[in-house]
């Protein structure tokens, strides 16, 4: 047994060290609060992201909306697998992502074989974003058979294959989130975009996203859509300014605005079977 004096000394030492630790925590907390006041974005990034180290596969990741979603997710610590057909653009987009361990895979989302290979190579995808897509600017009667086939194959079949093959892995893992980038035109249509509108009805109108949400939901997998209006990317570069700015906000949306919506859908664990419209009010008209 320690002599009485030593016991008092060790008790004092214990309380002193506890006090020092508490004081250090207070100083750290205060400095974090001060830093937050100076630069809120920096501290937000430091706070632990729900998505840290998760794996996302993003089709159409070489540019436009897909590339912006990859940027946003990579900022949160996600490991991205980017998919598109153009090697150079895709590598550039991949190299520009913050963080490590991102990958690029070249291929056509309309090819089932390509998806089967992706499914075998990447068995632990937590988030699948189907953003690959091509537009249309021709009246139906002037649209060639090849064009019809390419639009349907890329926008619709590509999304279906992605959901089926990556979704199967998610079912085994009993976790996952799928985000299908649809379009407001899938709901309201537009002259010169008949096939595109049909191909984009994967969300609201055809109930594809809602059907999958019902099939996958009991296994803990959420399936949602995002339906953008006119967003400033290569896809609408040839559109007139009047059309690009035809929303109530009188401007096209930005890719980062869509990426924020994707981040919200990816992190909110009770959003399921929904399609988030992000169109500046275009769907009022
Ligand atoms: N921009 C808009 O106003 C708008 C509005 C509503 C919905 N959306 C939808 O948002 C998504 C992204 O469009 P965006 O505006 O970002 O267009 P974008 O800038 O033209 O990008 C399209 C992306 O899809 C890829 N892609 C096209 N066909 C592919 C295929 N067969 N296989 C693999 N990748 C393919 C392209 O890469 P490669 O060419 O290298 O393959 C590119 O990365 C599309 O699904 C589009 O329908 C866009």
From TrEMBL:
Keyword Zinc belongs to the record: no
Record-level Gene Ontology MF annotations: oxidoreductase activity, acting on the CH-OH group of donors, NAD or NADP as acceptor; quinone binding
Pfam families reported in the protein's UniProt record: adh_short
Domain of life: Eukaryota
GO biological process, one term: fatty acid biosynthetic process
Record keywords: Oxidoreductase
Family to which this protein belongs: Belongs to the short-chain dehydrogenases/reductases (SDR) family.
Official protein name in the record: Carbonyl reductase family member 4
Organism: Neolecta irregularis (strain DAH-3)
């Amino acid at each position: 047994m320690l002599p009485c004096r030593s016991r008092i000394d060790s008790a004092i030492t214990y309380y002193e060290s506890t006090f020092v630790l508490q004081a250090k925590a207070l100083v750290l907390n205060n400095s974090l609060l001060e830093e937050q006041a100076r630069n809120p974005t920096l501290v937000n990034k430091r706070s632990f992201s729900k998505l840290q180290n998760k794996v996302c596969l993003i089709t159409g990741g070489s540019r436009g909306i897909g590339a912006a979603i990859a940027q946003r997710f990579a900022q949160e610590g996600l490991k991205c697998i980017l998919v598109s057909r153009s090697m150079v653009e895709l590598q550039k987009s991949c190299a520009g992502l913050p963080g490590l361990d991102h990958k690029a895979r070249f291929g056509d989302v309309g090819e089932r074989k390509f998806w089967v290979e992706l499914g075998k190579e990447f068995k632990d995808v937590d988030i699948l974003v189907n953003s690959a897509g091509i537009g249309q600017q021709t009246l139906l009667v002037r649209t060639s058979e090849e064009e019809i086939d390419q639009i349907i194959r890329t926008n619709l079949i590509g999304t279906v294959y992605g959901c089926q093959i990556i979704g199967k892995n998610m079912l085994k893992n009993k976790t996952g989130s799928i985000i299908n980038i649809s379009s407001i035109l899938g709901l309201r249509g537009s002259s010169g975009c008949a096939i595109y509108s049909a191909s984009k009805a994967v969300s609201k109108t055809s109930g594809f996203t809602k059907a999958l949400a019902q099939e996958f939901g009991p296994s803990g997998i959420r399936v949602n859509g995002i339906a953008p209006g006119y967003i400033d990317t290569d896809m609408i570069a040839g559109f007139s300014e009047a059309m690009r700015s035809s929303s109530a906000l009188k401007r096209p949306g930005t890719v980062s605005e869509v990426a924020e919506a994707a981040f919200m859908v990816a992190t909110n664990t009770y959003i399921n079977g929904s399609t988030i419209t992000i169109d500046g009010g275009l769907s009022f008209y």
